[in-house]
Structure prediction request, 340 residues.
Amino acid sequence: MNGTLNYYRDPASVAKKIHVPLYDEVLGRIKSRYPRGGRSLFEREMSRLQAVYDIAISRTNFIRDLVRLLDGLHPFYWRLVEIEFDRSKVREAIKCVSKARKVSSMLWEKYRFRLMAAEDKRELLKISSEARGRILSPYRKCRKSFELLRSLVVFIQKLPAIDTSLPTVMVAGAPSTGKSTIVRNVSRAVPKVAQYPFTTTTIHVGHYTTGDLKIQVIDTPGLLDRDPSEMNPIERRAVAALTELDGVILYLLDPTETAYMSLERQYKLLLNVRRLVPRKPVYIAINKIDQAQRTSLDRARKIAELAVEKNLAGGYMLIKGINPADARAAIREAIKLITK
Ligand SMILES: Nc1nc2c(ncn2[C@@H]2O[C@H](COP(=O)(O)OP(=O)(O)OP(=O)(O)O)[C@@H](O)[C@H]2O)c(=O)[nH]1
Ligand SMILES: [Mg+2]
Prediction:
């Protein structure tokens, strides 16, 4: 957990210790551990019932760790979870398993006494068989819940580790503006770089140390200039980072002929980002200056100046992000907006 905020710093490592069995696996475990023969009929039936109950409970102990994990999940991670999972369904699934544990405990108490009070062999066998069925029944009803919770835990196991206490630069912009190139060039993170849009589909985290300052650098997927309600899951992951994490946004402008979006649309996108995060500092880097034509560069500069004038950005610079020194300089300039 993060000491000050009580959030898990690396939920993936916590989730890796949680195993969610499927209902059939719980059943399989019971069958393989089923006590057979030996002692008196009463003892045998009692120990069978006990095995059913004990295994069902011990196999679902994960629910406590999972609830604790979800309670300590930073809102950013919750946003990522909610892109893939319906939160109310997750809640229902947890309720289903928790309830099954409670109901089975009550039934176990009840049937233990009924077994003890059985008057003959036939009644004993009848009560015992009924008890096993009823103790397992609430778990069987959670079949889908087990599946959902398992995929949720597997999803959390893959979430990136974000340290909310570090000064953070979130690299954002339209597709193919060169975001991942910069993150690769300043850190050990290795997000894929390619010419096609939406190469990055999820959040990547790297670290860049300059002097005494350790900076967390976050690569986000490309954004399109459209309303959040129309965004695809890839864009929504970028928005999750921009809105939920503290830090400064390094907004890249691509002034080249081959840019995915015109400079006007990239400006419009900046306005959209501003609307999403009105108070977060933004620093603009006009990227790929090695490839841009003079006229486009002038236009990009005008746009950046307008953005600074309108308080949409705290400053701008021109870079070629493929050059590691330029990439580092952009991160250092951006972080100044929050560390000065
Ligand atoms: N000429 C030139 N090309 C660059 C520069 N920076 C990045 N590129 C190229 O631009 C293309 C896209 O780069 P990426 O880093 O994948 O861009 P991205 O913004 O992460 O793209 P998405 O993840 O798809 O949004 C790649 O072909 C890079 O090599 C630069 O400074 N100069
Ligand atoms: Mg990328």
The beta strands are 168-173, 204-210, 213-219, 248-253, 282-286, 316-318. The chain has a mean pLDDT of 96.
